[in-house]
Write a structure and sequence with these properties.
Radius of gyration: 16 Å
Order of helices and strands: HHHEEHHH
CATH topology: Arp2/3 complex 21 kDa subunit ARPC3
Number of domains: 1
Low-confidence stretches: none
CATH class: Mainly Alpha
Number of strands: 2
Number of helices: 6
Largest sheet: 2 strands, antiparallel
CATH architecture: Orthogonal Bundle
Distance between the termini: 18 Å
Strand content: under 5%
Length: 171
């Protein structure tokens, strides 16, 4: 039980590292969001509470990479909580709403990863716009398409890494 949690934390740290690297970058800063794929995977496999907590802590990790920005009053503002909130909401929705309809095939995984990635990106953008300013370089569609393309392969690798059986999906 504790070893499983340690292994999940290790996977979150690996997803955070991959998000920060430019190893999978295409063109003009188009890169996949491995953390949301990780959250979606566990929300489908383990349920809404796993999605909520992994989304929250995975989002905090993603927020630490944002750093701060100097505001108009020469104070540094940190953007902690933006990804955390949107990933937690997305993870919970995946686990509660879409888990019953999820089937393990390429097409459904691609559609779900695309849809929930774009949902989390829109939520994050709205939070960023609400609390800070509009970010015109924030990518919705390209990241979602990239995630949808690599999502099934990531689900396959995560299934092998965490040795989750098919019956754990339908509990």
């Amino acid at each position: 039980m504790i070893l499983e949690k340690v292994f999940i934390i290790f996977g979150m740290l690996l997803a955070h590292f991959l998000n920060g690297s430019n190893l999978f970058e295409l063109g003009n800063a188009i890169r996949p969001d491995f953390m949301i794929i990780f959250v979606i995977f566990f929300a489908f496999r383990k349920g809404g509470l796993y999605g909520l907590w992994l989304g929250f802590f995975g989002g905090l990790l993603a927020d630490t990479a944002l750093g701060g920005e100097i505001g108009p009053d020469n104070l540094i503002y940190y953007k902690i909580g933006l990804h955390s909130f949107s990933y937690a909401i997305t993870g919970y929705l995946v686990g509660k709403v879409a888990r019953g309809a999820y089937t393990e095939n390429y097409v459904s995984t691609t559609i779900y990863v695309f849809g929930f990635t774009i949902l989390s990106r829109i939520l994050t953008y709205l939070l960023f716009w609400l609390f800070f300013h509009s970010n015109h370089s924030y990518s919705f569609l390209y990241v979602s398409i990239y995630n949808a393309f690599i999502g099934p392969a990531m689900f396959f690798l995560l299934t092998l890494a965490y040795r989750l059986e098919h019956d754990e999906v339908r509990q």
